[in-house]
Structure formats: C-alpha cells, structure tokens
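Blinded run. Sample ID left blank on purpose so nobody reads anything into the name before looking at the predicted structure. Input follows.
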Amino acid sequence: MHNEKNKTPRKGPMGPNMNGEKAKNFKSAVVRLLKELKGFQILISASLILAALGAILSILAPDHLSNLVNKISEGLVINKNNMEIVTEKVMSNMSEEKLNKIITKILSFDMSSETIQKVMISDDISIEDKELFQKVLKELPTMEKNDQLKKMSDLPNSILNIILPTSTYKENNFDTEILVLSEDKQQF
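Blinded prediction complete.
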C-alpha cells in the first residue's frame, strides 16, 4: 500500500503531472537567477524605475490635471467688471457725433445715377421692389439724414446688395483698413 501512494500523481503548483520542487537553498537559487539575468540588469532596473514612476504619476496626475482645468476655466470666464471698464474706455473716446459720422461713412449708400440705373434694369429685382425703390427715392429729399438711413435700410436685400457695395473703411488713427462687406452692412 505504501507503494501505491507514491505512484499517484501529485497535484502541485506546476500542474497535475509536474513535480513542484521547492528550492533546498533559496539564497543560492536567487544568486543563480541573478547571475543568469546579469546581461539584462540595466533593462530590469530601468523597467522597475519606470514602473515606480508610473505608479507615482498615476497618483499625482489627477490632482495636477484638476488644477490645470481650473486655471483654463478661470481664463475662459469673462470678468464682468473688466469688460465694463474696457467698454467705458472705448465709448469715452467716441462721442455720439463721432460715432454717427463713422456709421455714416461705413453705411454710405451709393446713390449715383449709374447705381440707380443698375437697380432699375436688373433682372434679379422684382417689379414691386423697383416701384418701392422709386417711391423711396422720391421721399428722400424731404427726410432727415437718420430717417433716410432707416428708410433705405428697409429696402429689399436685392436692392441693398447694389446700393450698399462692399467697401473699405480706414480711421485716421489706425493704419489698418477694414473691409466691410455688403452683407455685413445690411445686418448692421
């Protein structure tokens, strides 16, 4: 019976038919393993250092990321007080008279005889719109400047595209010219 026990396969850490042997001298086994891995010592050290660094960064990264997101969101929020100060400074340099003069320059209608003729012979403009344009032209001389602008801006877009051409505006204080499109003038 004693022999039968020895013939049964042992089930150990290596599997059912593998004999799991324990090292008789653990210290000498480790020394032998280190000798075998001596050629890979730099790579093993580097991988251990990088693994430790990765663990540290995975702990610290969320905190730094939240600080970064907070800084970005602070920059995106408009400071109402600063915006009011900027608006006040810009508007203090603009008197109402100067602002009206600039708007008039930007929104200058081209009412030359060539432009009026272009409106009247255009196939893209309906007959009703042409009649409305003629009516406005007759009323313009009796109106004040601001009323004229309002009346002209109420004309259909097909006419405004012709009498409000794309133009450039240059302020005396600045070297830059501003291109003002006909579509932008109509929205203004």
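Unblinding after everyone has recorded impressions. The chain has a mean pLDDT of 75.
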